[in-house]
Structure to design on (153 residues):
């Protein structure tokens, strides 16, 4: 599958509820060769020396052509944390509760937690999309890899 991040993305600052510091939220569309594929939300946090990102990817098999925000019956949202982990010099991804702060919002459809995400048939597509975002979304890439890169030597 050929994924492409739509260049018309939104980058907005937000204030963290836990530390009252300002961070970035990125929202955008991911398209495939067939058209609309997913909507992503990346929250970029810097708590002390820990740079991490929480990514939600909203997937659907029936995007409304004129209104992609209109939910459909198969709408599913996956979530992951990307950042430093103990015992590794490279950042890692782990599944987390999707759209954690959007309970009850029908836009996100089925908001999967780790246990529900692991057997889901779309999980490989979620990881492919996340990999694409980590490589090609400029703010996300710089936040996760440039800051967390282990010193070479």
């Amino acid at each position: 599958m050929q994924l492409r991040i739509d260049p018309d993305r939104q980058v907005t600052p937000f204030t963290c509820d836990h530390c009252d510091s300002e961070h970035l939220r990125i929202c955008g569309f991911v398209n495939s060769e067939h058209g609309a594929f997913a909507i992503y939300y990346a929250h970029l946090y810097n708590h002390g020396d820990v740079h991490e990102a929480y990514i939600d990817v909203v997937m659907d098999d029936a995007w409304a052509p004129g209104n992609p925000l209109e939910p459909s019956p198969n709408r599913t949202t996956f979530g992951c944390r990307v950042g430093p982990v103990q015992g590794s010099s490279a950042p890692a991804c782990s599944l987390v509760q999707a759209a954690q702060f959007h309970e009850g919002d029908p836009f996100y459809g089925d908001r999967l937690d780790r246990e529900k995400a692991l057997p889901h048939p779309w999980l490989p597509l979620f990881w492919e999309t996340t990999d694409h975002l980590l490589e090609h979304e400029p703010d996300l890439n710089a936040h996760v890899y440039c800051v967390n890169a282990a010193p070479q030597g």
